[in-house]
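Weekly modeling sync, notes
Attendees: S.R. (lead), two postdocs, one rotation student

Agenda item 3: backlog of single-chain predictions. S.R. asked that every request posted to the team notebook include the full sequence so nobody has to chase files. The rotation student volunteered to paste the first one in as an example of the format we agreed on. Action items at the bottom.

Example entry:
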Amino acid sequence: MPKAPIQKMFDSIADRYDFLNHTLSLFRDVAWRKHSVRLLKNRAPKDCKLLDLCGGTGDFSKTYSKELGVPQLSVVGDFSYAMLSKVNAKSKELISVQLDATKTPFIDQSFDVILNAFGMRNLLDTAQGLEEVQRLLKPKGYFLTLEFFSPIDVFSRFFYKILAPLFIPFLGSIFSKKKEAYEYLVRSVLQFLSVKEYQDLAERLNFQCVSIKKMDMGIAYAVLLQKLEVKS
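Predicted structure, as returned to the notebook:
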């Protein structure tokens, strides 16, 4: 099947993806992942089966293992083969699977925990993505989203509407020669849901919002959702 334009874009920046994530965020992305997975402490089972959805090069699942212990099963799923090709070099316990996040190949209720870092806003249909997560999670399983949501307060609006359009594409073009990819990054944030809209959508789809953690004055948020049990 032919690749979608966004899939080609991520394939094209895979070699510099981690470096640019760290550089553009001044390594704050490392702290965001750590703070996010700690929301699962004393919640996720020790024999956890984990899926890192839209997992890219596997940084989120690697952070989970470092902070909370190595899961019984740890799968990184992404539509970019070039991204996934970096996974095994980072950690031998990670299994990489190329997939569509809205139509995964796994059976119902396969995972205790699903992670998603900076991937939900790249889906064509956020609700469809959440429905697929709902299908994949075991009852009372957790879905942890780390994301750049559409800005709602003064600082985040200033950052994403004034600062980010100036320096993110500029630095991206210098280090990766792919200015359009980083123009897309800023545009995708502004076009995405706010964190409250995301919470409301998730709750309509049978999730309970357990925790929302604001990172660096609203530049990023961690949203921890739990799958509700369906009462017969």
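Discussion: group reviewed the output briefly. The domain at 26-149+193-227 is CATH 3.40.50.150 (Rossmann fold).
Action items: rotation student to repeat for the remaining queue; S.R. to check formatting next week.
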